[in-house]
Specification:
The protein is an alpha/beta fold. The chain folds into 2 domains: 151 residues, P-loop containing nucleotide triphosphate hydrolases (Rossmann fold), CATH 3.40.50; 74 residues, Rossmann fold. It has 8 helices and 12 strands. Strands 6-9-10-3-11-12 form a 6-stranded mixed β-sheet, with helices on both faces. Strands 2-1-4-5 form a 4-stranded antiparallel β-sheet, with helices on one face. A two-stranded antiparallel sheet has the order 7-8. Helix 4 packs across helix 6. The chain binds adenosine-5'-triphosphate. The site of adenosine-5'-triphosphate (ATP) has 10 residues, from helix 1. The site of adenosine-5'-triphosphate has 10 residues, from helix 1.
């Protein structure tokens, strides 16, 4: 039944090339991430990791094959309904000029329905509590356009908090832990596992530590899967 597939992501022989280009960027990719699982994608620069992630919320459309989310082809969703299910954390953390809270809620913080405790919970899981609470105005502190008054790791933590606040079924992390020191990376991932254990995660990463605990690791090379297994198997 469809209920069994909630939170599931499945790639069925997916290929991608840019419209008009001759070379494929991704070729014949098949894998499944079940509800609650973490699948890590590794591979050298340019191997197609970001492209693979981008196909799921349909930032780009697969050329061949099918991508299923909750058992339904992503092409058959209204874009908004598909993206509502997904928390996407981009490679480069995007910050807006406004308060910490508005950066986490994407401007919804003035709505009645917004619970301050949900913002704080998201920031806490994302390991941002300490640095936010050190700022004079804390959650009301101003972040400048592009987050120029924050460090790279602070921006990454806030953009992860933004995804957590959204409370999606699926998290897509595009190299989203790269600017964190090892300890913060480790603590943050264990908190994610503890607090958000029913979400499905796809993590693109460079650092072995970040992906060691993944249920499955997919090794990409020039757009093809050249290895799949757990860290111990590979
Ligand atoms: P990195 O680790 O450096 O982020 P990646 O594995 O995420 O790399 P992608 O960003 O998915 O790799 O890029 C895959 C391939 O697609 C690369 O060869 C890249 O040059 C190519 N590519 C990316 N964007 C475009 C574009 N807009 N037009 C044509 N080719 C592109």
């Amino acid at each position: 039944t469809a209920g069994d597939k909630i939170g599931e992501i499945e790639f069925r022989q997916v290929s991608f090339k840019y419209p008009g280009a001759s070379d494929y960027i991704l070729r014949d990719i098949s894998f499944t991430a079940s509800k609650g699982e973490t699948v890590a994608i590794i591979g050298s620069t340019g191997s197609g990791k970001s492209t693979l992630l981008n196909l799921i919320p349909r930032f780009m459309e697969a050329t061949d094959g099918e991508i299923l989310v909750d058992g339904l082809n992503v092409k058959d969703y209204k874009l908004e309904a598909l993206r509502d299910k997904i928390g996407y954390v981009s490679q480069k953390a995007v910050m807006f000029s406004g308060s910490v809270s508005s950066n986490v809620t994407l401007g919804e913080e003035s709505k009645q329905s917004v619970e301050q405790s949900n913002i704080q919970r998201a920031v806490e899981i994302a390991q941002g509590k300490d640095f936010i609470e050190k700022m004079d105005q804390q959650y009301d502190a101003t972040i400048s356009q592009g987050g120029t008054n924050l460090s790279g790791g602070q921006k990454q933590r806030l953009s992860i908090a933004r995804a957590i606040y959204k409370n999606p079924e699926i998290y897509l992390y595009d190299d989203s832990f790269s600017a964190l020191d090892y300890k913060t990376d480790r603590v943050l991932r264990s908190k994610l596992k503890e607090e958000i254990n029913d979400a499905t995660n796809i993590i693109v990463a460079q650092r072995i530590g970040t992906i060691k605990d993944a249920d499955r690791i997919l090794v990409l090379d020039k757009g093809e899967v050249v290895g799949m297994g757990t860290h111990d198997e590979l």
